UniProtKB/TrEMBL annotation:
Protein name: PLP-dependent aminotransferase family protein
Organism expressing this protein natively: Alkalicella caledoniensis
Keyword Transcription: yes
PROSITE patterns: HTH_GNTR
SMART domains assigned to the protein according to its UniProt record, in alphabetical order: HTH_GNTR
Matches recorded under CDD domains: AAT_like, WHTH_GntR
GO molecular function: DNA binding; DNA-binding transcription factor activity; pyridoxal phosphate binding; transaminase activity
Domain of life, source organism: Bacteria
Family, as annotated: In the C-terminal section; belongs to the class-I pyridoxal-phosphate-dependent aminotransferase family.
Record has Signal as a keyword: no
Length: 445
């Protein structure tokens, strides 16, 4: 019978494993080889392999055959720490040599002015360069409305201090959202309320009702490469947000920190759809380039641009002119785009491999999101799995993941529900280390 032949194949493979002829991570014999050895149809052999895959004993690689996952792999403890919490760029991708060259070149070019205080709002040549770069992504503005900041975080801080230093009201955030924004709002004494962010986006009827109540002064949002979920809004949703914000006079603080990593074809920022140009657009050069460079760029509405610049000058005289000059040369030389292309290809390979592992090894019913671009993978744990316990269990195997409690606004008991997730960040791990996701899934199984 067909079933007996399938069992014969599985018994044959299990016996090969038992006697060490197929080792952990090794490719199984091809269907043709087993068919020839056992005198069994190749279709039957493939069916047996599929059953072994469903039993999580092997995994398949598209057009690459089947590979063994044995009990030792499930309990593997890696010799080095694999850090899925780290959002910094993988060391091998940081262009030290190239950037050292432009740093030296910047000193030569600007030697008489570089070490004085910067021009108001940032180095003028860099702002001119960024105007052209921003236009490529649908952000149209004057160089005078661009403010160079110490990373995206300072731009967010300036926006919040400006808005809530002048007005009473609330800050609306997504749920979940960037944890440092919640900490910053708490530090500044800003009252926060939240709206749930899902793979489908936001509930726009709820958003309209929240805006209509008249308490919201600003809405902090990450439409693309959302942290921590990796989700991205579709175009009609970004248009809707821009329309509602204009209708109810709400300042949108758009954090597009990973814009350079790309997104769906035709994807634009909210700023593009904001005809009244009342959106603060924020971009970072830390996550996809050099974490330590601490340079961000913010485009402010013209109506508040000068006040924000003055406010920055009072609280922070200077963003490193040397770093700005070097970044300007790096962009204009074409080296920045070459670097970004290299990073994008590496990330896309990591995400593709992660997606393959999830498709093959995920327990039935597990919800997960591996985006096409970006750095974050979002996994909803089964209801019976405690995320803190699971995080500690993986830590014993030298795998670091991040439970997501701190990404949620804790405004009410209702807000404390639905936090049974972990976030995996792929930016700091190597392409080989991505395979540790199989161990994470095995721990769930």
């Amino acid at each position: 019978m067909e079933k007996t032949k399938v069992v014969m194949v599985k018994d044959y493979i299990n016996n090969e494993i038992k006697h060490g002829r197929i080792k952990e991570g090794q490719r199984l014999p091809s269907c043709r080889e087993v068919s020839s050895t056992l005198y069994i149809n190749k279709i039957t052999v493939n069916k047996a392999y599929k059953e072994l895959e469903q039993e999580h004993k092997v995994y398949s690689v598209p057009r690459g055959g089947f590979y063994l996952i044995d009990s030792q792999q499930k309990k593997a403890v890696f010799p080095e720490i694999i850090d899925f919490r780290n959002v910094a760029l993988e060391q091998r991708l940081i262009p030290y040599r190239e950037f050292t060259h432009v740093m030296n070149k910047a000193v030569e070019m600007y030697k008489y002015s570089l070490f004085n205080y910067e021009s108001e709002g940032g180095l003028l040549p860099l702002k001119d360069t960024l105007k052209g770069e921003l236009e490529k992504d649908g952000v149209y503005t004057r160089p005078s409305n661009i403010l160079i900041t110490n990373g995206a975080q300072q731009a967010i801080n300036l926006s919040l201090q400006y808005v809530f230093g002048k007005n009473k009201g609330k800050l609306l955030v997504e749920k979940p959202t960037y944890d440092l924004v919640l900490k910053l709002a708490s530090h500044l004494g800003i009252e926060v309320t939240s709206i749930h962010r899902t793979e489908e986006g936001l509930d726009y009827k709820e958003l309209e009702q929240i805006f209509k109540a008249g308490e919201i002064r600003a809405f902090y949002i990450m439409p693309r490469h959302h942290n921590p979920t990796g989700y991205a809004l579709i175009e009609k949703d970004k248009q809707k947000i821009a329309q509602l914000a204009e209708k109810f006079n709400v300042l949108v603080i758009e954090d597009d920190y990973l814009a350079d990593l790309g997104s769906r074809k035709g994807s634009m920022p909210i700023h593009y759809y904001d005809t009244s140009k009342q959106t603060v657009y924020i971009k970072s050069f830390s996550k996809a380039f050099m974490p330590g460079i601490r340079i961000g760029a913010a485009v402010f509405p013209q109506s508040i641009s000068e006040e924000i610049k003055n406010f920055k000058y009072i609280t922070d005289l200077n963003t490193s002119s040397l770093s700005q000059a070097a970044l300007d040369l790096f962009i204009r030389s074409g080296m920045y785009q070459k670097h970004i292309n290299k990073v994008k290809k590496s990330y896309e390979r990591k995400l593709k491999r992660a997606r393959e592992i999830f498709k093959v090894l995920s327990p039935e019913g597990l919800n997960w999101n591996v985006p096409g671009q970006g750095i974050f993978i979002w996994v909803q744990l089964p209801s019976h799995v405690d995320p803190h316990f699971f995080e500690k269990r993986l830590q014993q195997q030298k795998i670091l993941v991040k439970n997501t409690q701190e990404f949620y606004h804790q405004g009410s008991e209702k807000d404390k529900n639905g936090q049974n997730y972990i976030r995996l960040c792929i930016s700091g791990v190597t392409e080989k280390q991505i395979n540790a996701i199989s161990t994470i899934l095995s721990a769930l199984i």
